[in-house]
Amino acid sequence: MTQETATASSLFDHVAAPVDAIAHFRGRLGFEADVSDVQAALADGEPFVLIDTRNDAAWQQGHVPGAVHLPRRDIAARAGDLVPSGTPVVVYCWGPGCNGATRAALEFATLGHPVKEMIGGFEYWVREGFAFDTTDGLAQRRPDGLTNVAPGGLVGEPAGHAASVAPIDHGITCAC
C-alpha cells in the first residue's frame, strides 16, 4: 500500500513565464498611469488633456486642477469640441472601486485618441496629498500614511499592538 502526502498549493504553481510577464506588465503601463505620474506630467507641461469623467455634483466637490470636466455619458457627443483629434488623453473617475474611467477610456479609444486611465482616480489624488480645486478654491489634505509614506515612516501603533481606528468622513463621495 502506498501513502500519498497532501501538499499545499504553492503561490507559484501557476506563474507566467518571464516573457509573458514582460508583455503583460508592459501592456498595463500602456493603459494606466498612477496619480503621481499624472501629477508629474502636468507639472512638466506634457501635452495631454486630463478628463474628469464624473457627474456635475462630484466635479463640484473637487477635481484635479487643470482637468476638463466631461462626464462619461457626454464623451461621444462633446469630446470633438473639447479635445483636438489625436490629442493624448488621461481619464479619471472617483477611485479604484469605480469603473467609470475605464468606460471613458474605451470611449476615447473608439474616437481615436491615445488614452490612459489614471488608476486610483480622484480618491487617490486627494489621498496622495495633491492639491485639488473646489467651488471654494484650492484645497489640499495631509497625505494618507498608507498611500504616501511620511519621511519618518508610517505613523501608527507598533507591530503587535491593536490600533484603534476611527472612521474618517472626508466629505467626498463617488457620484458616478
From TrEMBL:
Transmembrane segments: none annotated. Residues 44-134 form the Rhodanese domain. InterPro entries: GlpE_sulfurtransferase, Rhodanese-like_dom, Rhodanese-like_dom_sf. Pfam families: Rhodanese (PF00581). PANTHER family: FAD-DEPENDENT OXIDOREDUCTASE (PTHR43031), PYRIDINE NUCLEOTIDE-DISULPHIDE OXIDOREDUCTASE (PTHR43031:SF1). This is Rhodanese domain-containing protein.
